[in-house]
Amino acid sequence: MCGICGEAGKADGYQVDAARIQKMTDALSHRGPDDDGYHVHQMIGLGQRRLSIIDLSTGHQPIANEDRTIWVVLNGEIYNFQPLREELLRAGHRFSTSTDTEVILHLYEEEGVDCLNRLRGMFAIALWDDREKLLLLARDRLGKKPVFYSQLPQSLIFSSEVKSLLTDERLARRLNPLAVHDFLSFKFIPRQDDLIDGVHKLPPASYMLYRNGEMTIRRYWNLEYAPDARMTEEEALARTEEILAQSVRLRMISDVPIGAFLSSGLDSGMIVALMSQMSPDPVNTFSIGDSTQGYNELPNARLIAEHCHTNHNELVVHPDAVKILPDLVWHLDGPYADVPALPMYYVAKLAREHVKVVLTGDGGDESFAGYDRYIANLLLAKYRNLLPLVIREKMIPAILNLFREKTERKSWRQSWRWFNTMSMLPDSESYARGISFFHFQNEDKERLYTDAFKQMVRGHNSLDGILSRFADDRVRDPVDKMTFSDLMIRVPEYSNIKIDRITMMHGLEARCPFLDHQLVEFAATIPTRIKLRHLNRKHLIKKLAGKYLPRKIVGLPKQGFGSPINTWLRGDLKGLAEGLLHSSMLVRDGLFRKEYIQTLLDQHASQQFNNGTRIWGLINVEIWYRINFGDRSPVEMKENLKDLFHGWQYPQKTAPAGSPADSPVAAAGG
């Protein structure tokens, strides 16, 4: 795992500035604290920061071929590099290292860009072919590793992170209003643009060719949904277990210690159980909890750890965990620090004290239909038939408004409000609107935006990115349409961004066996009747988990890492949120309305509505905006915000015995 960056000139005669490449590379030092490397020659510059995982002694990058006409840098891992290496050796290629990176180099010599189809892993690749004066950039199929780029008048610059691009003074730091508009809807951006105008994301499963100033982007992989109507549950179960076990085994290849994130969920539990069967030593596992009722997963995570005989480590998070929010937003290059990002930061920090690589359970819900909204969307037609439109439009909202919000997680009132609102929309729109329901809907934005900002985003529909995937006529089944949309948009633009940035800010590599493309491809052939048996979400994985995990775990409702943000924003963090938003620079600069922000705060404090997700989103946008467009340099603004967050008087907490008194997390085991 690494950070990569570089620049390619538009034409012969262009000279890349080595100092610029070094500045870009230095901005990625957290991603690769073990080594740095450069290749700068005439119209090409490549930089790399390395986190040494495979071939610790000879894996220095960039790597060149025998005649030094092709150079490559890699961020990620190629899990099938060993058989590919043997194949290339038989074909006469000579290797100077034992790394997976060099395999890409020689495979490109054999097959050109088609070599991407042979790779099984997570990767962002930059390859320079000096004979062709050609830059190749490529991302893995599900977008686990990022590539950002910007076209300048005389060149193209690229990097693993936006902050690296912004070290180049030729790239203007300007706000992209449409990206802000999208973010407020989904807490991610479902398009290939960034919050900084002129910065773009290379799409997942795609490659870019840049030559003579001309840029071409093409897809090299498409997920095909072709459910096999003849498939039995037993066949689906056996094949899923086989591919998942193979995926875990491949991701355990490492020359450094590995471990796993462990919640109380089936997915991470399955990964840990399989790892424990394959490892000669106890697996290192890492869990996080919260003392608030309904948020402490530690007892059930501990049950899995004991069942699998792991070396288990735990932390308890308290409200002052938000002290790290400015650093988190800085490393995320955007306001993506949703509520689960806080505990993930601390569990990643804990894991890095013990290992360099962790396996996670991310991706299982999307391929195997694990979200409640998949079932809810199937039930909407029955609900529409049961209750006439006039009752759903008038009577149900009036009844729901009689009650106050008290519970922390989604209450019956929130769930019914969601379900009732979605029932009044077409199926495709209900799915897209359903994802954004607890964030900012169009009617919320009308009240939040100033007239000037409304003009900037006029005519732009944030739902289009989701709707276009849902409307893909290659996918027929309603549940498949939902899982397909999630895998193509929500996974790369939300889940993978969070996993990549938060682990890499600690110099930790995260690997996701459920996002192995061969497993995802097989899951796309499993009929919905097997995935959702009797409206039981993730039926297949539950049945498989019964072979590996305690019965109690298999029957638990879905949870995952989380924090009680609604409770915190009514109590310990209420004053901090008000102080930050009352002095909002977004309001000062004429983008948002102060009155509506105050309405959200008042509604939340009075328990009229649980606005915690919206308020938390505004806090994150505010922090990101101040860092990038404040009165001082971005680094100075970040430090100023850190002073504000660290200086806040958080209520005293009671930490378990043996934990540091001034720590936002308390050790609960180890």
Description:
The protein is of the alpha+beta class and 670 residues long. It has three domains: 2-183 and 195-219, Aminohydrolase, N-terminal nucleophile (Ntn) domain (Glutamine Phosphoribosylpyrophosphate, subunit 1, domain 1), CATH 3.60.20.10; 224-563 and 650-670, 3-Layer(aba) Sandwich (Rossmann fold), CATH 3.40.50.620; 565-649, no CATH class. Helices cover 44% and strands 15% of the residues. Strands 2-3-1-9-8-10 form a six-stranded antiparallel sheet. A hairpin with a 5-residue loop joins strand 4 and strand 5 (70-78). Helix 9 (325-332) runs antiparallel to helix 29, helix 18 crosses helix 19 and helix 28 packs across helix 29 (634-647). The longest helix has 27 residues, at 478-504. It is globular, with a radius of gyration of 25 Å. The two termini are 27 Å apart. The relative contact order is 0.12.
Number of domains: 3
Structural class: alpha+beta
CATH arch. level architecture of the largest domain: 3-Layer(aba) Sandwich
Radius of gyration, taken over Cα atoms and rounded to an integer in Å? 25 Å
Q: What's the name of the CATH homologous superfamily of the largest domain?
A: HUPs
Percentage of β-strand residues: 5-15%
Unreliably modeled segments: 654-670
- In CATH, what is the class of the largest domain? Alpha Beta
Overall body shape: globular
| Overall mean pLDDT | 90
The biggest sheet, with number of strands, parallel, antiparallel or mixed sense and barrel status, is:
6 strands, antiparallel
Strand arrangement, major sheet = 2-3-1-9-8-10
Helical element count?
Answer: 29
Number of strands: 18
The CATH topology of the largest domain comes to: Rossmann fold
Query: Which percent bin holds the helix content?
Result: 40-55%
Distance between the termini: 27 Å
